[in-house]
Write a structure and sequence with these properties.
Layout lengths: L8 H18 L13 H4 L30 H48 L9 H18 L5 H19 L1 H12 L8
Helix pairs in contact: 4-5, 5-6
Length: 193
């Protein structure tokens, strides 16, 4: 390594002393200002800008400060057109925001309805009906119906797996299947309606 001789204990002190000496020699002893002091030749020139802006007289409180509407300037007409455009744009933006908020409210209502419908299909905790193993049993039963009818006609191949799956659902998941049947038939399951 080329830097190994510099890292020894004997060479660190002389290098540090030399660095301090060079820093004190190169460090300026006078303060450097960002601007030079003004020279006499610069003071004799006429300035480009006036030192003080002309004083405006304050309008009297009893005099009308606004010009009459009959003498509107092009700037006033432009300002009124821009105002009309801004107000129209604001109205359209507010209407769009209202429509968007109504649409989002409708979506949230539909989501709540869907969520509560799906939650109502689940069996009550007292029924001891477990959905995951039951759903797997129903799926395997439907697939076995498909295997049983693999060389039969197309009508049997379409209906037997479905019928076997529905039958297995009534046997394995009776409460959940009853809830789904009630939902499909439009019956809410609430007695006394």
């Amino acid at each position: 390594m080329a830097a190994r001789p510099l890292l020894r204990q004997r060479t660190i002190v002389p290098v540090a002393v030399a660095g301090c000496a060079i820093t004190t020699l190169l460090y300026p002893r006078t303060t450097v200002h960002a601007e030079a002091p003004p020279e006499p030749s610069q003071l004799s020139r006429k300035p480009i800008y006036d030192d003080l802006p002309p004083l405006r007289s304050k309008p009297q409180p009893n005099t009308p400060a606004k010009p009459s509407p009959s003498s509107s300037t092009p700037t006033d007409r432009l300002a009124s057109q821009i105002r009309k455009a801004r107000l129209t744009l604001y109205d359209y933006t507010a209407a769009g925001e209202t429509r968007f908020n109504n649409f989002m409210s409708l979506l949230l209502t539909q989501e709540r309805s869907f969520t509560s419908t799906i939650a109502s299909l689940a069996p009550p905790p007292g029924s001891h009906e477990r959905l995951m193993p039951g759903a797997l049993y129903v799926l395997v039963a439907a697939m076995s119906g498909s295997i049983l009818t693999r060389n039969r006609n197309i009508l049997l191949r379409a209906t037997v797996p479905f019928a076997v799956g529905v039958g297995a659902a009534w046997v394995v998941l009776p409460v959940t299947t009853r809830n789904v049947a009630d939902l499909g038939s439009g019956n809410t399951g609430v007695e006394g309606d």
